[in-house]
Specification:
With about 260 residues, the protein is an alpha/beta fold. The chain has one domain: Rossmann fold. Helices cover about 30% and strands about 15% of the residues. The protein has eight helices and eight strands. Strands 1-2-4-3-5-6-7-8 form an eight-stranded mixed sheet, sandwiched between helices. The relative contact order is 0.16. It holds the Pfam family BD-FAE.
Length: about 260
């Protein structure tokens, strides 16, 4: 299946705010707000790119702007990535800090614009992995990066073509050994690391969760997503004809299904 990648460089309306959740350059989140003054639910969207510094939050601006136009507030956090100071444990520490802090920062930047209650947590590809992981941080071993004692405030989880199995991603050497770069080695060498951040080895989120992916995805094997769906009892919606990037492209035929899934969470 030929991929349509133009969404990665497509122009989009600029964010309404950029908030800072930490001291480093990557500790920021761009925020899009819907028009009007009615309080709206917040979506925290974690971008993908196999955790590499070459891919940042800007490529999901078209998605964020489209969702804001449909009535959601959207925040897209940045986080440290491999090749840019990230990897174990920094990537996970950053995402945990962003998920915990950004909703309050958005409320402070735009008082009265967020609906009461927790945010939705969403992500694509590597960001889908981070969303599934972040939603279960209260289940992590003490001392693991991002671990917390109470469940994160999450209304629902939307995982788009997510990397569900880090160990298998390592074994298959996907995206030029992206899992090795993220984790510092393989599951045989570093079993405790994988046990702390691999969705396949963690429980499913407590919050309502749904995954969407095209069967012909050439970057994240859907067989791994199907196995996570089976073992964790999480719904997987398969989108015929959708490539890896269609699920984040508001111009794709797959996009209405993504919007519907988020609406029904």
């Amino acid at each position: 299946m030929a991929e349509r990648r133009d969404v990665l460089t497509r122009s989009a309306p600029p964010p309404d705010h950029t908030v800072r959740y930490g001291p480093l350059p990557d500790h920021v989140a761009d925020v899009w707000l819907p028009s009007g003054g009615t309080p709206r639910p917040l979506v925290l969207f974690l971008h993908g790119g196999y955790w590499r510094a070459a891919h940042d939050r800007h490529h999901v601006a078209p998605l964020a702007a489209d969702l804001a136009g449909r009535g959601w507030a959207v925040a897209c956090p940045e986080y440290r990535r491999t090749g840019g100071g990230g990897g174990w444990p920094a990537t996970f520490e950053d995402v945990a800090a962003a998920v915990d802090a950004v909703p309050g920062l958005v409320e402070a930047a735009a008082p009265g614009r967020l609906a009461p209650g927790p945010a939705y947590l969403a992500g694509h590809s590597a960001g889908g992995h981070l969303a599934l992981w972040s939603a279960v941080r209260h289940r992590l071993p003490a001392g693991a990066p991002g671990a917390r004692t109470r469940p994160p405030a999450v209304r629902g989880v939307l995982a788009l073509a997510p990397v569900c199995d880090l160990a298998e991603t390592y074994r298959r050497r996907l995206d030029l050994d992206a899992a090795r770069a993220l984790m510092g080695g393989g599951p045989g060498q570093l079993p405790e690391r994988y046990a702390a951040v691999d969705p396949a080895r963690l429980p499913a989120p407590d919050a309502p969760t749904v995954m969407l992916q095209g069967p012909g995805d050439g970057r994240v094997p859907i067989v791994l997503t199907r196995e996570y769906a089976r073992t964790h009892d999480v719904p997987l919606i398969e989108l015929d004809g959708a490539d890896h990037f269609a699920v984040i492209d508001p111009e794709s035929a797959a996009w209405p299904a993504v919007v519907t899934a988020l609406t029904h969470l």
